[in-house]
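S1.2 Input.
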Amino acid sequence: MKYLFFDVDGTLLPFGRGVPDDTRSALAAAQGKGNLIFLSTGRSPAEMDPRLGVISFDGGVCSGGARAFANGREIFSSYISREDLAFTEDLCAEHGWRLLVQCDDASWYRGDFCEMYESLLDRYVGRRLEFGNLIKTDVIPSDAKCTKLLLVTPDMEEARGLLRDRYDVLDNTVGIPSCYMAEVCQKNVNKGRTMRILLDYYGADIYDSIAFGDGSNDIEIVQAAGIGIAMGNACKELKEIADYVTASCDEDGIGQALRHFGVI
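S1.3 Output.
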């Protein structure tokens, strides 16, 4: 039995579109042979694209590794401290950065974050992504448990310098240039580390895992997995460390790789 981990945007979902029919068929065939299917995404559970509902997942690594689920229950969670969040919000107010705060039940933002984000997607990707439970607010709820941040600013180099002591600041993975947007993650919390926690829950060996991805936040899980696979549309850095580079996400890349390694 193999434990299969799939990034969402650019891997399961071509940007702005639903799950391709050939991908859905390949995953169904893999599950039919007794393999388990997991998400591996920077999205929180609350942000999932509803079009993923055509796939029956066995669990997943979410929020860039800050949460993990198996058999319908949460088995791991890690949250940004209130001190670090307050520090970041103060910097955003001082420098005019646009911030989205990813929490358990929703993602909160102030001002024109979504307008800026959608404008950048229109300009550089040509399609918009679907996210659930994005809520505009003046004040982040005091009881909100924050897993990850998204930051938009034309001064990203300065932002990275001011944040790197407290966070791991990663290039975004949705096609917007890294000079405009970044994922702001907890130190040493990533998909690869949390995949190991999930495999330990099942008593599984790391060599029985296969991880698919396309972006910089997939590097740790692709490196850690027994077999790490980069999509044909993946960034250069991921292709360089992957065990195998398959076709793109809209050219049956997942099915091709699963057939290559004898999973289906």
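S1.4 Remarks. The mean pLDDT is 94.
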